[in-house]
Design brief:
- The complex is a heterodimer of chains A (323) and B (388).
- Chain A is an alpha/beta fold and 323 residues long.
- Helices cover 37% and strands 27% of the residues of chain A.
- Chain A has 12 helices and 15 strands.
- Chain A has a 7-stranded mixed β-sheet, sandwiched between helices. In chain A, strands 9-8-10-7-11 form a 5-stranded mixed β-sheet.
- The longest helix of chain A is centred in the C-terminal third of the chain and has 22 residues, at 216-237.
- The two termini of chain A are 24 Å apart.
- In chain A, 42% of the residues are buried.
- With 388 residues, chain B is α+β, with helices and mostly antiparallel strands.
- Chain B has 16 helices and 14 strands.
- Chain B has a 9-stranded mixed β-sheet, with helices on both faces.
- In chain B, helix 5 (127-144) packs across helix 14 (296-311), helix 9 packs across helix 10 (216-229) and helix 9 crosses helix 11 (240-253).
- The chains are: A alpha/beta (323), B alpha+beta (388).
- Chains A and B meet through helix 5, helix 6 and strand 9 of A and helix 3, helix 7 and helix 11 of B.
């Protein structure tokens, strides 16, 4: 490894595309050396090495402290890493790779709606069938913890290697714990999600490894990278609104703040009533209306590219975790 | 003895005392007629997973052989001893065993390999006498480690089972109560708050309840037929009949139904019975008479057991009995007990055991075989200090 920072990025499919796009939006272009090894890359302008790996490998290497950062799903982190919070820190959800880990039972089980129902069915099943009801899943840890929290003990986990959703029909299990995105696969297999049976709402995360060696150089590079990511993230949360009119004063600002959640990044209105605000996109029209009713002739609105601030909550979170 | 002790001899000397004490304990059991059993450390994983649940799996050391058979390092010794007994020529007849050896469980702040000693009594039909003998040997175990008067917590899960069997409650309520009894120590506080929720839509609950009331068979057939018409077949291990039955049961219960008042009062009164076994038995008889239910057999067994304990010279008045004591493993069927160090309250038990008549069937015995025994935690007993 020649660079000061090593980041694991998914090696194929949608996850790779979306990870690439995420970094690109933050102004960080991922490049692969032409004719070079396919599993290595870098980021333009940053002292970073990229390792292209499967999401499962990224998760394992983060746990072992072989990477500084990785892009991987929260579901894998919580399932595969024992005592995850002590080994890694989930720095930021990335807004893609959404999927839920759920408890799903056959639609035929019209008498089962909640986990409490499932608890009762488990006991009744065991008494009637002389064996415990079987739950097929790849998410053994998550399933076990969830069932335990709901007080259900009368069941057996059957580890699934392939198409988990086919297990009930194949007779290898009574119900499943599986990951679902649209719910289409579940429906196609005549399964339904238990009402309070959503174990985890997962998405891709930027994850940092506590156990990796974080040199001064590594921290410096991390700060620069996280700075850009945070700047982009902050820009996506607001549009910039500018106006200038005599009636633009502190009271108006306070009202706008309370009603729409605006922030004044460059201070309050000037003596000439000039004001720049950052406003959540959903409230921009209402804000413009408010300003005009108070006397503004014109209100301009632009989308933001980056907003750099002195505070960097992402880096602060990392620093805190590495103490 | 050398003049300059080496590290090796120093360690050996320090290890020798606990080893000698444990060996002495086992000699004691053997003298009482319990044959030494030494089952293998490597065991099939299935019986432990089946009997103890998924929670134990997290703490088990699992491995597999090239054929794909799942194996484990034994997390306890009761099941291995029982399996060997079932595989032997003695299976079905009365036999008594004692054991001492390492067991393996992943634990956060304690060694993952530790010693357990204990006894098992299989096949004896005189349950009350066998119970008393086992409890007496448990008391001799703590005495061997210098604790002459341990705190004795005694329960009898057969009494709760008899109570539930004798009263009139929907099956769903009985299942729920047994579950809560095994799990929570606060069942009596929860009685008022226990609520069963029906999954059925409130809109057609009335209709379903009426159907089930008028013609139960017909109602079940109707629901089953409706499911088939909807193209739903028996997916997974539950049959359409099973689903229909529970569906109708819930309709009969109604939404958010609470435990019926009469049953609640009776169970609350039952769970309040504590103290000396003789007094407890009398209280239970009064309770059964007042509620006009038959718990004779269970209370008789309880009293007979107390009688045998007294006959052995045990101070029955020192035993703390409570109807609330259960064990979290659901294969216990009668006597349950724990011995604690009164000088260290809040610490876990030194010895624990009871009767588990259902266990050997679960391990594959074609007919039920009575079983009672206990396990002793050597590492905790050692901390009581002072050898006998």
């Amino acid at each position: 490894m020649s660079a000061s920072l090593l980041i694991g990025v998914p090696s194929k499919g949608r996850l790779q595309e979306q990870a690439q796009a995420f970094f690109a939006r933050a102004g960080l272009r991922l490049v692969q050396p032409r004719g070079g090894r396919e599993y290595r890359g870098s980021i333009e302008g940053l002292d970073v090495d990229i390792a292209y790996l499967s999401a499962a490998e990224i998760t394992a290497q983060l746990a072992q402290g072989m990477l500084h950062f990785g892009v991987t799903g929260e579901d894998l982190v919580r399932e595969r890493i024992d005592n995850a919070e002590s080994r890694v820190v989930l720095l930021a959800p990335l807004g893609f790779g959404h999927a839920n880990v759920v408890v799903a039972v056959p639609q035929a089980w019209i008498d089962v709606r909640s986990m409490a129902d499932l608890d009762d069915v488990a006991t009744a099943y065991h008494a009637r069938h002389d064996r415990k009801m079987r739950v097929a899943t790849k998410y053994v840890s998550l399933a076990r913890d969830f069932f335990s929290r709901h007080g259900i003990t009368d069941y057996r986990i059957v580890e699934s290697l392939g198409a988990t959703e086919g297990a009930p029909a194949a007779g290898t299990a009574e119900l499943i714990v599986d990951i679902t995105t649209t719910g289409g696969t579940l429906a196609a297999n005549a399964l339904k999600v238990v009402d309070d049976g959503v174990i985890l709402r997962s998405q891709a995360n930027l994850v940092a490894a506590r156990a990796m060696a974080w040199s001064e150089a590594a921290r410096g590079t991390a700060r620069r990278m996280l700075d850009r990511i945070a700047a982009r993230e902050r820009a996506e949360r607001f549009h910039e609104v500018r106006t200038r009119f005599p009636g633009c004063n502190d009271e108006l600002l306070a009202e706008a703040r309370e009603r729409f959640g605006v922030v004044p990044p460059f201070g309050g209105p000037t003596s000439s009533g000039m004001l720049t605000l950052h406003c959540p996109p959903g409230h921009v029209y209402e804000l413009a209306e408010l300003l005009r009713t108070r006397g503004a002739e014109a209100v301009s609105v632009i989308e933001l590219g980056y907003v750099f601030t002195n505070e960097n909550p992402l880096y602060a979170k990392l620093e805190d975790a590495l103490k | 003895m050398s003049a300059t002790p080496t590290i090796a001899s120093d360690l050996t000397a320090r290890r020798a005392e606990p080893e000698a004490r444990a060996a002495g304990l086992l000699g004691h059991f053997e003298y009482a007629g319990y044959a030494r059993a030494e089952p293998p450390i490597l065991q099939p994983a299935e019986p432990f997973l089946d009997l103890s649940g998924e929670d134990i799996r997290r703490r088990m050391y699992l491995t597999s052989d090239p054929d794909g058979r799942e194996l484990c390092l034994r997390p306890d010794l009761t099941i291995p001893v029982a399996r060997d007994y079932l595989a032997s020529a003695a299976a079905g007849s009365a036999a008594a065993f004692c054991y001492l050896g390492p067991v393996f469980r992943h634990r956060e702040d304690a060694p993952n390999e530790f010693l357990q000693a204990g006894i098992e009594s299989f096949g004896r039909r005189d349950s009350a006498a066998a119970d008393a003998e086992v409890l007496a040997l448990a008391l001799e175990t703590t005495a061997h480690y210098g604790l002459a008067a341990p705190e004795i917590r005694l329960g009898d899960v057969g009494l709760f089972a008899a109570l539930l069997g004798a009263i009139d409650l929907p099956a769903a309520w009985k299942r729920r109560l047994v579950k809560d009894f095994n799990r929570a120590e606060t069942l009596d506080e929860d009685l008022d708050r226990l609520v069963l929720d029906a999954a059925a839509h409130p809109e057609y609950q009335g209709v379903l309840a009426a159907l089930a009331g008028a013609d139960r068979q017909g109602a079940r057939a109707l629901v089953a037929d409706l499911l088939s018409i909807a193209g739903i077949t028996a997916v997974g291990g539950r049959s359409v009949a099973e689903i229909a039955e529970r569906f109708l049961d819930q309709a009969a219960l109604g939404n958010g139904s609470r435990l019926p008042q009469e049953a609640r009062e009776l169970i609350r009164r039952f769970l309040g019975v504590t103290g000396e076994p003789d007094e407890a038995a009398a209280t239970l008889r009064r309770l059964a008479a007042d509620a006009a239910i038959d718990m004779e057999a269970a209370i008789d067994l309880f009293e007979t057991r107390a009688g045998f304990l007294a006959a052995r010279g045990l101070d029955v008045g020192a035993i703390r009995f409570s109807t609330r004591y259960g064990r979290s493993l659901d294969y216990y069927t009668g006597l349950v007990f724990e011995l604690h160090d009164p000088g260290r309250p809040g610490e876990p038990h030194l010895v624990a055991g009871g009767r588990y008549d259902g266990m050997l069937s679960r391990l594959g015995s074609p007919a039920p075989i009575p079983a009672v025994g206990f396990a002793a935690w050597i590492e905790r007993l050692e901390q009581v200090g002072g050898a006998a």
